Each structure stands twice: as C-alpha cells, then as structure tokens.
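Deviation from plan, reported transparently: zinc ion complex.
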Amino acid sequence: MIRVTVWNEYLHEINQPEVAAIYPEGIHGCIAEFLGRNEDITVRTATLSMPQNGLPEEVLENTDVLIWWGHMAHDRVEDETVMRVHRHVLSGMGLVALHSAHHSKVMKTLLGTTLNLKWRHGDRERVWCIAPAHPIAKGVPQQFLLPCEEMYGEPFDIPTPDETLFLGWFSGGEVFRSGVTFTRGKGRIFYFQPGHEEYPIYHDENVQRIITNGVRWACISDISRGEIPVENPEPLEG
Ligand code: ZN
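Because the crystal trials were delayed, the predicted structure below was used instead.
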C-alpha cells in the first residue's frame, strides 16, 4: 500500500463560494477521492489550520508520498513543519507539489532557487507530454487541453530538473515546463503546474492520471527509506 497524505492550505474553498462550488470537499478532498479509488493507495488529508499544520512527526513517518497544494498562505506554514517535511523528503518520502506549491517554503527549501515565474489569470493551456516512456506519462495522451487555466510562463527559476515530462503551451503564447522531476537526498519530487483553484482542473481525467502516476513514481520501497548516513566510513582495504 502506498500511504499518501494530501496537504492543502484550504483557504480559497472556505472564503470564496465560487471555489467551494468546484471543490465542495476542498481541493484535498477531491484529490483524496480520486486517489482513493486505487486499490494500491491509501489516503489521508491534512490542512494548514490543524495543529502542527496537520503534519506532525507521526503523520510524516507514516507517509510514503506527500501531496502539497498551497497558494495564499505559504508564510503561515510553520518553519518547524517545513523542516520536518524537508527531513522526511531527504530520507525518502516522495513529494508531489502542485500548481502554486512552487512558491511554498517546502519547495524553496528543497530546491534553493526563487522558483519565480510569469503568471496571468484566465488563459487556456495545452499540455504536451514530451516523455511518453516515463512512468508518470503512462496512459497520458500526447497532448490534452485545459480550456481554462492560469498561465504560468518561462522563465521558471528552478534548478535544472532531472527530467522534464510535460510542457504547457498557453493561448497567450507563453510556454512552461509544466511537469518536472527532482531528487533531493533519497526523495523523489514531482512538480506539476495545472491546478488553479478557480477552474475544475483536478476533475480532469488526464490530470488525475498524471497525479496518480506521480504518486506511484515518487513512492520508493520501504527498504530504501531511512536516514541519510552522515558519518564518514572507514577506508576500504585494498
Ligand atoms: Zn493559481
């Protein structure tokens, strides 16, 4: 079983009726629902307002893959939470960072750059799959359309990714590295751009397939998990 925790700051859905209409159970509830349809995945959710932001040590210890959605309250995530998540990623917990999670303290800490990008509301996106042999692209068409999505455009200030899987093209002409992977310590990180809260992006079947594939890819076996060794080894003989 892959143990997934879906984290959401859960503010837009409470404060904006038009967002609540799209996600009555919250974005985390929508993602948990479609992931939970898979027999190999078990899901829990956590939100910003919970004690320790819903991510105390015992939750992270029992999480194989953490999904992160945050937008307007990155600064309200406690530094202790960020450091716990950072430590767990380095020791093998997978991270799937969605949409505006690019500016989360968790992602900035893991990747070390500004993660700045261009953006504009109310565009249309065509997502191109440019790595069809990658596990995250399994069952994903060569391209698909998101009729309404926020434009995220290059330059995207990230370190050079391990792999670039998806490119987004927007009707305003911009392009974006919409799906990229990184490795930090033992942890696998998948960043996926679609998911602005005002549009029903997480109801899209291709988006759901990509996130589900991302979860399976980011989960490494229990046997590989554990603290990164820091002690210096004895020199080898011969
Ligand atoms: Zn957005």
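The chain has a mean pLDDT of 96. We consider this an acceptable substitute for the interim report.
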